[in-house]
Amino acid sequence: MANNKNLFESLYKEYYAMVYQLCLGFMKGRADLAQDLVQETFINTWKGLPAFKGDSSYKTWLYRITVNTCLKYIRDHSSKDQHAEHDEASTDKQVTEDEPSTFNHLYQAIGQLKELDRLIIMLVLDELKYAEISEIVGISEANVRVKVHRIKKNLKQIMQHG
């Protein structure tokens, strides 16, 4: 048990920022929701630690847990969040003191993408290699390359016109 505790603390310290950035992207720049999902992700990590088999790196494993946690939240709250998105007050509150508005604009644009595209671009922004992204999302590396090209093009349009 102490071994798992040390490992968990190490994973938390090493990957907290990565998990937070990914959650922030899924939550369209809403820091409060991202923070909640980071906590949920690390709870899920702690629970899953005894079952970790080492088939992938801890980083890849943690990405999968983060993605699954975020997607579950989105599925569970999709009808509620759609109403909140139309509420002007909720979108005005998205810029936090320590996040420049440029990043917030990017996260809002990313938030307009489909779930898989959102995930892929967040992984690209986190500087993962295409092979790692392929393993995390379960599509071929060639397909990842094509999708990234299309996503960047789509994001550019969203940011210019939205």
Largest sheet at a glance?
Answer: none
Fraction of residues in helix: over 70%
- Please trace the helix and strand order, writing H or E for each element: HHHHHHHH
Put simply, the count of helices is 8
Features:
78% helix; 162 residues
What can you see in these coordinates?
The chain has 162 residues and is mainly alpha-helical. It has one domain (2-161). The chain has 8 helices and no strands. The radius of gyration is 16 Å and the shape is globular.
Element layout with pairings:
Elements: H1 2-26, H2 31-48, H3 58-85, H4 88-92, H5 101-111, H6 115-125, H7 130-137, H8 141-161
Outline of the structure:
The protein has 162 residues and is mostly helical.
